[in-house]
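Students often ask what a 'structure token' actually looks like in practice. Rather than answer in the abstract, let us consider Glycine--tRNA ligase, a protein of 503 residues. Its sequence is given first.
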Amino acid sequence: QEDIFKKVIAHAKEYGYVVQSSEIYDGLSAVYDYTQNGAELKKNIREYWWKAMVQMHENIVGIDAAIFMHPTTWKASGHVDAFNDPLIDNKDSKKRYRADVLIEDHVAKIEAKIDKEVNKAAKRFGEAFDKEQFLSTNTRVVEYRKKASDILQRMGRSLEAEDLDDVKKLIEELGIVCPVSGSKNWTDVKQFNLMFGTKLGASAETATDLYLRPETAQGIFVNFLNVQKSGRLKIPFGIAQIGKAFRNEIVARQFIFRMREFEQMEMQFFIRPGSQKEWYEKWKETRMKWHLSLGMGEENYRFHDHEKLAHYADAAADIEFKFPFGFKELEGIHSRTDFDLRSHEEYSGKKLQYFDPELNESYVPYVVETSIGLDRMFLAVFSHALQEEELENGSTRTVLRIPAVLAPTKAAVLPLVKKDGLPEIAHKIIADLKWDFNVIYDEKDAVGRRYRRQDAAGTPFCITVDHQTLEDNTVTIRHRDSMEQLRVSIDSLRNHIAAEVDM
Ligand code: ATP
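Now compare that with the structural description of the same chain:
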């Protein structure tokens, strides 16, 4: 698994997708740059989300709020007091860890044991195997599951009560060792705030302390009435936004999975108090459908309902995706109650209420939000796409099966040879298509090698101009995934491509 992940990272660099930021200075930890193909893929994911969430919903509008916000925002939102990670240091290795992540990794090991038992039993019983029944009746598995759930519950309770001594005790009782030194010599657990601070203003005396926003949501909450009034929006309605967020993550590892500067795609849906359960379920379902629409395999997604809730939520679930390092959170769906709007009312002294003409009363709306990391979605798409395939002739090919609608380059146009007027025709095809699709020209190397290069770069179509083109105005169009080639007229190319890549 580690090997696969290393390949993903190397491939992302080699094919112009992602590199470490400031690489010539040996990089900056957990900060990344998207290069030419990565920028296109990111843009296409952004657009795919925006179309589905904003354009396709009559009652959802999009905004673009500033990264800097009035500092009181973060008092009201709870981020100054409660946006912390519990940290613990190992005294021997001097390495710092998130205490909750250490405990969760320990639980993941127990879960791996459960998986092993399930797989063994599935093999033994074959068709007759009933997984649910096995999970609830096999005594060893029942014991493992109870243990895992007890640990998580106790951790959740202790963190909520800020009982950090108990978190440390739990680590000691479980015998968790430092992954680097193997030692159990831990310090106390301390809270660490994740927000990046900066200053506004020139002189030290007058400067104001600011934060880089750790989530985009607050830009929506503070604009809730502006948008509702100017758009004459009626509840239920949503406000969506895509933008950068910043978190001073301690456990910054796993490539673009957890970054210090990243992009969120969030939508806050404003509803009548009391209707949150219904909307929460609805948005869970709608967001899962969006993921499945990309065809990356139903078996690679699952819901994880939270037992430990954030300070603002009355229900929360993650959509988890099977990354190369296992199932991890890709998106969160949170029922945020009226926590944020009420708190902003209190701190700003301004009313943030909605007059409901049907009920003939005013209230502070409840909110259900969907929140997905654009970079994490990028990693899901990219790591799932990268495949090595054995071909019939025994050779292997590396292919990046990015869904055509998201692929950075939709088609490469290749003249079979660099003479006889074929390059000119290829350039003309590109000129005809390039307003609608990102298409490129490639004439270097034998055509077979060019196909392989485009396969690895993720280009869904290769269009080849050959000598027959001179006679009948047809070309071949080759599909990346099936490697099938069709002979089609140049005039029909636009339709062929559009059939697969139009959103
Ligand atoms: P985690 O538990 O992984 O730290 P979280 O629960 O704090 O994430 P949220 O605050 O719910 O995450 O943020 C919503 C989404 O933003 C996440 O589902 C994830 O896709 C993305 N996200 C959060 N933190 C990061 C990060 N440091 N780097 C990249 N994406 C992130």
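One point worth highlighting: The chain has a mean pLDDT of 94. Ask yourself how you might have guessed this from the sequence alone, and why that guess would often be unreliable.
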